[in-house]
Amino acid sequence: MLSLMRIGPVAPLLVALLPVIARSLVEILRYVKGTVTLGMTLTAPTTMDLYAFSDADWAGCPATRRSTTGYCTFLGGNLISWCVKKQQTDSRSNTEAEYRAMAHTVTELTWLTFVLNDLNCFLAATPILYCDNLSALHMTINPVFHARSKLIELDFHFVRERVALELLATRHISAAHQVADIFTKPMTKASLNLFRTKLCLQPRHSLREHINNTCEAWSYKEIGAIRSNAHMHEDTHEESSRVTLVTLEPLE
With DSSP H G I counted as helix, E B as strand and the rest as coil, what are the percentages for the chain, rounded to 5? Predict the structure, then answer.
């Protein structure tokens, strides 16, 4: 009885949310079905330049109003890591959400730098972090903003120290070229296809697909000629078989 009393108030909410959830699931399945042939491509040779794109969706979660962090890191022209994660605390401004996303991205860049150094793969230049929020970028080089951002004091000191030690460089990038937007924001089909290509997602090559496309490119006349040659070969093979059987019969 206690369980039924708990389920009772929740049931109408589930029924109300069911169409929204079903619509989202259908859209996800359609996207997966339409992109099942895509695969990540790695090119060689490539440069030893490490850089990343960072972005945040401020208060994007409708249930908790938490912000979402999205970033991707590249080594040369190859995508090597990416992440989409809901932030653990609420952000009171877009700048705060963007700066938290930058801090997570800097942590990933620092770890990748240590891994590459352990593998004796040294970077050609200082890692670069691209962000489309000017206020968050100013906080990495201007200590005056610290008084306005006490809620992100730890993240401020971490990123600011990396920039001051010249272990990290920050650059501004326009929203039209912000690749990390694909992880945090809805976008048009044209933008999705553009950013998907920049993330090294290309159609996978298949020998079977090449054969099928070649067969479809043949004309009906060529296919008819092939079939007639095959029938002639079968008739010749049957006649030779009958002759062979006759010659093998014993004489009376």
Answer: 55, 15, 30
66: number of Cβ within 10 Å: 18
* Residue whose tokens read 């995508």: 79
Q: What is the pTM of this model?
A: 0.73
Burial level of 207, CB count in 10 A (0-12/13-18/19+)? exposed
Please give the sequence-ordered ranges of beta strands (E in DSSP) within the chain, or none if there are none: 38-40, 50-57, 68-75, 78-86, 128-131, 169-172, 201-203
> Angle at Cα 113 formed by Cα 107 and Cα 114, nearest 5°?
95
In a 3-state reduction of DSSP, which class is residue 201? strand
Tell me how far apart the 2 most distant CA atoms of the chain are, in Å. 118
Q: What is the pLDDT of residues 31-70, one digit of tens each?
A: 888 888 888 888 888 899 999 999 999 988 888 889 999 9
Rounded-to-integer distance, Cα 212 and Cα 97, Å = 50
